[in-house]
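Case study 2.
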Amino acid sequence: DIETFNYLESGYIDSISIIQFLAGLEEEFGVEFTDAEIADPSFKIAGQLIRLVERKVMEHERSKAGNGEES
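Prediction:
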């Protein structure tokens, strides 16, 4: 179940690969994760991470729209 899948504990991503994974997400979606977000246990759960990325993308888009920038 994607909502509860822990990609670190499952071995899908190891502690070294997580850095590349996070950098890829940040680059792909134009977001930045805070240290607090990364340290939160929910960050390791696929469903929670998906919602976090969606929220950050929406916030970024609203910020750009509020500044008169085009998407």
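The first helix runs from residue 17 to 29.
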